[in-house]
Amino acid sequence: MLEATYGDRKHEDRRQRRSRLKAAIDRALENGGTVVIPAFSVGRTQELLYELEGLIHDARDARWQDLEIIVDSPLAARFTEVYRELKPYWDAEAHRRLRSGRHPLSFENLYTVDSHDAHERTVSYLSDTGRPAVVIAASGMVSGGRVVNYLKHMLGDERHCVLFTGYQAPGTPGRDIQRFGPAAAG
Predict the structure, then answer these.
(1) Could you report the per-residue pLDDT of 123-173, keeping only the tens digit for each?
(2) Quick one: which of 165, 64, 48, 56 has its CA closest to 102?
């Protein structure tokens, strides 16, 4: 079997992906910026939360303990709840985390944004304050959704960065940003 969308690509292993995620967040902590991650609401968001909880848990830098992880997608928030309900089916690694008192999809630094008003306040707050944060927002290819508002406010500011964790199809704003930078969002 060959998966058609990604079949012609060599993917990084989990350790490399985790290292790149950590490096982007370390830059945000240094710059006083936000890491904006356009992500699909089902699967990708939960995978990111799992990795972020691990990075926060393992961090030696105290600033990581205060780092806000924000899920700004009502659909992603609802599906994260479903994933939490499916704990009995999680793998052995996740169960080890649970047994040690950790909660990979529900941790202290995790916030969800529900209403549109709260979304607008969050965008303004993060773009104006210089408080480091990670925002996971839909849509994954930047073709709509709340992530667009974050990028409109933050993409031109060097403190902030966009981290693409998924495929950006040709003709999507995400692909244009990857290829041409902030001017593509414009």
Answers:
(1) 999 999 888 999 999 988 999 999 999 999 998 899 999 999 888 899 999
(2) 56
Torsion on CA atoms 53, 55, 56, 58, rounded to nearest 10: 120
- Which burial class, exposed, middle or buried, applies to 136 when counting CB atoms under 10 A from its CB (0-12, 13-18, 19+)? buried
Mention every residue, 6+ apart, whose C-beta is less than 8 A from residue 54: 18, 97, 104
Fold of 14-181: Rossmann fold (3.40.50)
* Helical packing angle, 92-99 and 44-58, nearest 10°: 50
Q: For residue 105, count other CB atoms closer than 10 A to its CB.
A: 19
- Write the pLDDT tens digit of every residue in 19-52: 999 999 999 899 999 999 999 999 999 999 999 9
Strands 133-137 and 34-38: parallel
Domain ranges of the chain: 14-181
Which of the 8 DSSP states describes residue 172?
A: S
